[in-house]
């Protein structure tokens, strides 16, 4: 047994102490300095993380933060009394309309439109009527899509919601049009994917109050995409977004310009009000997005810090929820 020692030790033997000093260069002073330096490095690392993510919030919320409540009061003029009166007056107008008075709209659904119109009951009623008329005519577009699309190279790469919000509380919808293969996903299913994504987003009170921003990436778009960029499809996009949906569209960013993008914009631009046109931004370089969004919330392909697996698989979840979305609406998320 000479020259060997048991595995269990209560103290370091002399040879190990000598080895630690000679091979690892450890002394009491160096040990203390090393611990202090490591603690400082860790502290600096967490401070940098805090600075990086300060001002943005995760997409998922369970309640409204204080700034959103204040914003709702100041910008949308919402108070508890105005909310009650708005719902009552909107229901009264709906009750007088024989075309839609058979629908028992949920209060949360009505609030989406009241907030969109800053409690202008007439404007909210008009848009709800447009929505019902369109949905009755094009009901199949509101059914959701097959779960088979949600594969690695499927719907989840085409349309996503980024996992962090902008500092102003807006969620960001990220659409990679070049990832859409019209040969595998027909244009009608692409429309369904877009519709269900936005309809489910509107159930989020933070989105209702702060609005939505979008990033449209045209990298990889080709003739097959150009073929479906018809006046009819562009007009449908306009009609839904501005005349039917309760969306507050704060900014639209276009990157990786292509012929498809140019033609789509030429077709869509005449329909858009000047207010919306001014919110559309075209970027010659993708890195220019960093002038509008914190790096911490942008994918790495745009110079940000988010890797692909950091992106939330929102469309799959939204597609499941969409199965319960009827004419009367769905409850808010919280």
Automatic annotation (TrEMBL):
GO MF assignments: phosphatidylinositol bisphosphate binding
Domain of life assignment: Eukaryota
Stretches assigned to coiled coil: none
One family name in Pfam for this protein: CRAL_TRIO
Residues annotated as domain CRAL-TRIO: 167-310
InterPro entries with a match to the protein in the record: CRAL-TRIO_dom, CRAL-TRIO_dom_sf, CRAL/TRIO_N_dom_sf
GO cellular component, one term: membrane
Name recorded for this polypeptide: Alpha-tocopherol transfer protein-like
SUPFAM superfamilies attached to this UniProt entry: CRAL/TRIO domain (SSF52087), CRAL/TRIO N-terminal domain (SSF46938)
